[in-house]
Design goal:
The protein is α+β, with helices and mostly antiparallel strands. It has 3 helices and 4 strands, in the order H-E-E-E-H-E-H. Helix 2 packs across helix 3.
Length: 120
């Protein structure tokens, strides 16, 4: 579980990310990112599309996204930004390895990962 300081919990903050954040779309999920200048931490929120009919499916997809972000750990930039990840219905049948690769790919597109090497 992410520590509280890394969680986006306020409805007002959610709206701010949805209204002003940049959107990145993947088959499995939607990534919304909003930079917060002058803030020392990053904050994440995980949601599932309302198209999921069962709570079990919604909770599973959010757990998969959370775990994929935690595995990236030190590679995620520390500077201030808010990130909302919304699971889409195809994620219901996805394996963790596929989700993990997709999260890394989308974080790279959104420039949220620290490059391991200067040429990366």
């Amino acid at each position: 579980m992410l520590p509280k300081q890394y969680r986006l919990t306020s409805g007002r903050d959610f709206r701010r990310v949805f209204e002003g954040g940049k959107t990145y779309v993947h088959r499995l999920f939607v990534l919304k990112v909003l930079p917060r200048s002058g803030e020392p931490t990053r904050r994440f929120a995980f949601s599932a599309s309302s198209k999921f009919k069962s709570a079990v499916a919604r909770n599973r997809t959010k757990r998969l996204l959370r775990e994929a972000v935690q595995i990236l750990g030190e590679r995620v930039k520390l500077s201030g930004y808010d990130v909302v990840m919304i699971a889409r219905p195809p994620m219901r049948d996805a394996h963790f390895s596929e989700v993990s690769r997709a999260v890394e790919e989308m974080f790279r597109k959104a420039n949220l990962l620290i490059s391991a090497q200067p040429g990366e």
